[in-house]
Design a protein that fits this description.
Blueprint (H helix, E strand, L loop, with lengths): L1 E9 L5 E11 L12 H27 L11 E11 L2 E11 L10 E2 L1 H5 L6 H11 L4 H11 L8 H18 L25 E13 L8 E12 L5 E5 L4
Length: about 250
């Protein structure tokens, strides 16, 4: 049995733009091992389909970017270079033309690369999501082994890259947070007893731990100290966090 996997891409008006074989397999006598697709065969199919889809998308995008946005005249091509884009279905090498600016307007630069400006990140959001998700659950090395095992990544992913992306994503999330607030009760502490009680129900979670190797100032001795943390969640209000160090 000969099996061919092909892809066809049509334009909006139904014109056939791409018709290409992306994979071919052979099957002999049916056994438990050759029933259906293997993992390696599925990687080959996905990588081939991804390459053809992305190439068609980039080609269509560059056709739209060639005319000058101001006067509509076609802009001349200065040259082309390769742009590497990594997705969950493999590394893609894309042709990125560089276009001269039209003379109808004044520009600070003589040329522009529309595709490079569009792809500000050279990794797909899904690819970055999978790296950071697994790296937050298991070690960097195990994350790399898992992703290389199930995705057609060609062994290009490494632990250092995953670690860098995880820290980069963590920093991005921290930057989106509001300024840290250390206390949520306003007013003088002597007046806190007069504040109205919060609406019920009030859910409170409390936990504690000992922090080791604390060294007091001007002391050579190390000691542990206790930390108690908690979170309360009144209905229809946001979370409130609190902490206490009884021994400090």
């Amino acid at each position: 049995m000969n099996i061919k996997i092909s892809i066809k891409i049509e334009s909006d008006n139904g014109t056939l733009q791409v018709s290409k074989d992306v994979a071919q397999f052979e099957r002999g006598q049916l056994t438990l091992a050759n029933l259906g697709l293997t993992l390696e065969e599925s990687k080959q199919i996905l990588q081939g389909i991804q390459q053809e889809i992305v190439s068609s998308q980039v080609s269509q995008y560059m056709e739209q970017q060639t005319p000058c946005p101001d006067c509509g005249l076609p802009r001349k091509c200065k040259g082309k270079h390769k742009l590497v884009y990594r997705s969950v279905f493999g590394k893609l090498e894309l042709t990125s033309p560089r276009l001269f600016h039209c003379s109808c307007q004044t520009h600070q630069q003589k040329s522009i690369s529309p595709l490079a400006l569009l792809l500000t990140e050279r990794q797909s959001p899904e690819y970055l999501y999978l790296q950071t998700k697994f790296a937050s659950l298991v070690s960097y090395g195990l994350s790399v082994q898992l992703l290389n095992e199930v995705l057609p990544l060609d062994g290009t992913l490494n632990a250092s890259s995953v670690r860098y992306k995880l820290h980069q994503m963590g920093q991005r999330l921290d930057d989106e947070l509001d300024e840290e607030q250390y206390i949520y009760v306003e007013g003088c502490p002597m007046e806190w007893e007069e504040l109205p009680r919060p609406d019920l129900p009030l859910n409170v979670g409390i936990d504690g731990a000992y922090i080791h190797a604390y060294r007091p100032k001007n002391s050579e001795q190390q000691k542990s100290f206790e930390v108690i943390v908690g979170k309360k969640h009144p209905r229809a209000r946001g979370f409130k966090e609190f902490w206490l160090c009884p021994n400090l």
